[in-house]
Amino acid sequence: MIPHAVIGVDIGTSSSKGVLVGPDGTLLRSAVREHAVDRPAPGHVEMDAAVWWEEFGSLVRELTADGAPPVGAVGVSGMGPCVLLTDADDVPLRPAILYGVDTRATEQITRLTDRFGEEEIRARCGSGLSSQAAGAKIAWVADEEPEVFARARRLYMPSSWLVRRLTGAYVLDHHSASQTTPLYDTTARTWYAPWAELICPDLELPPLRWSGEAAGTVTAEAARLTGLPAGIPVVTGTVDAWAEALSVGAHSVGDLMLMYGTTMFLVHTVPDLLTAPALWSTVGALPGTRNLAGGMATSGAVTGWLRDLTGAPDYADLLREADASGTGANGLLMLPYFAGERTPLMDPEARGVLAGLTLSHTRGDLYRAALEATAYGVRHNIEAIEAVGGDIRRVVAVGGGTQGRLWTQIVSDVTGREQEVRTTSIGASYGGALLAAQLLGDVSADDWNPVRETVVPDPEAAAEYAELYGLYRDLYPATADVVHALAARQSR
Questions:
Q1: pLDDT digit string (tens) for 409-433?
Q2: Which class for 153: exposed (0-12), middle (13-18), buried (19 or more C-beta within 10 A)?
Q3: Beta bridge partners of residue 75, listed in sequence order
Q4: Which CATH architecture group holds 5-241?
């Protein structure tokens, strides 16, 4: 057992979460700070990096107040890949551009793809250029904000920004770097200088480390600001979905992690490099691992939107109403593409569709349709993973959406897959704490976070969902021209 408690903090899309975890993996305390992203223009999704550091300090002070046990290490993670550009003195030059939900760089994606070649980019970087590619967003800043770009000297993401503020180290983990397409070579596992020099010649790209490696130790100044002990180690950290996978031990070959959050994310661990136009191929969070990943642009974001729109007091009420609605949501079918769609459509101009509405439909039917829409999207991604050679042997669910059981049951019924749910499913912050604990001693996710339950598909519901899934797949091509025209009007 490790000698001290550890802290994990994750900077997410809609909130920052922190946990204080005991030496045996017990969740001692947790805290949350909600926040909102900025959407200054259609397709633009940003956040002020000052929020990340302010909320980190606030979370840590709460977690360590009133007789908390001594803290021996800190783990960090965050949404990504993001683009935070600073000057040489680490002053942010503009708000951070967020991951694939930000779709602004379509022109840069086309130009860079034409210049370097789609197949060459995929062969070298693992993935083609899409809204997920941080390198294309750096190119957008160069094109659209040249006065900002002329002053830019460093590149950060939420986890590496926290590391910088805590330790003074300028580093980035290999996994995050592998999502800066086309700047990182996934075979050589290093920055690819020829393309980096063309896209961002004046940026000092950060030295690379693995997620679980120590980035440095808490400085005296950071200790003063946060209340953490000076000198304790801080992990390099990684993107939130990969920290979530680590938190539930889903990083062995054949594992698939499903992250139920503001967006739905899938991470499948593979033995060798697999590439596909409709998925992302990355290096893993741990040395020697590779992943094939997918991500929906919205999932929990849609359920949150429905809660606010309908004035529901809380999610528990909505879940009860959705459960009463029953399989198929009384004939409603939703496309959950409210912010475009990432994998496997790769269509930033996709939009949400709700088909089959009548005056008799209820709030519970709408909420059920949203949960089912996410499940259909998961199945679509699983089929895309397997079509290119993925071999899914185990599915592990994690994140806030695993609470209440209904959503995970619907996903199992739609996909026909069992899902493990671990004792602690709080997600990335717990994964950061696990990485921190591993700096202090020999700790495994299976010991820290054992399986709590296994969600098993219901054969009767699965048979009904098989028919509905066919309608779901038909609905996108049937409505694509209309929603693309509407998307064009929205961007005027």
A1: 999 999 999 999 999 988 899 999 9
A2: middle
A3: 8
A4: 2-Layer Sandwich (3.30)
> With contact defined as beta carbons under 8 Å apart, do 402 and 409 qualify?
no
Three-state DSSP state, 256: strand
Strand (E) positions, 304-368? Answer: 333-335, 353-355
Tell me how far apart the alpha carbons of residues 260 and 377 are, in angstroms, rounded to a whole number: 12
Q: Which residue has the tokens 């509407």?
A: 486
Write down the pTM of the prediction. Answer: 0.89
Q: How many residues does the chain have?
A: 492
Here the tokens at position 287 are: 């040395």
The average pLDDT across 399-405 equals: 88
> Per-residue DSSP letters for 414-470?
HHT--EEEES----HHHHHHHHHHHHHS---HHHHS-EEEEE---HHHHHHHHHHHH
Pick the CATH number of 250-424+458-492 from 3.40.50.300, 1.20.1250.20, 3.40.50.1980, 3.30.420.40: 3.30.420.40
Q: What is the pLDDT of residues 168-194, one digit of tens each?
A: 999 999 999 999 999 999 999 999 999
Q: Boundaries of CATH 3.30.420.40 in the chain?
A: 5-241, 250-424+458-492
Amino acid type, 354: L
Q: Which helix (H) or strand (E) holds 84?
A: strand 84-86
Tokens encoding 392? 């899914």
Residue 277 has pLDDT above 90, yes or no: no
Residues contacting residue 451 through CB under 8 Å, at least 6 positions apart:
420, 421, 422, 423
H or E, element range at 166: helix 158-167
Q: pLDDT per residue over 225-247, tens digit each?
A: 999 999 999 999 999 999 999 99
Residue reference for tokens 């360590």? 64
Q: Can you tell me the distance from the alpha carbon of 56 to that of 79, in angstroms, rounded to the nearest whole number?
A: 14
Q: Which of 231, 213, 96, 227 is nearest to 168 (CA)?
A: 231
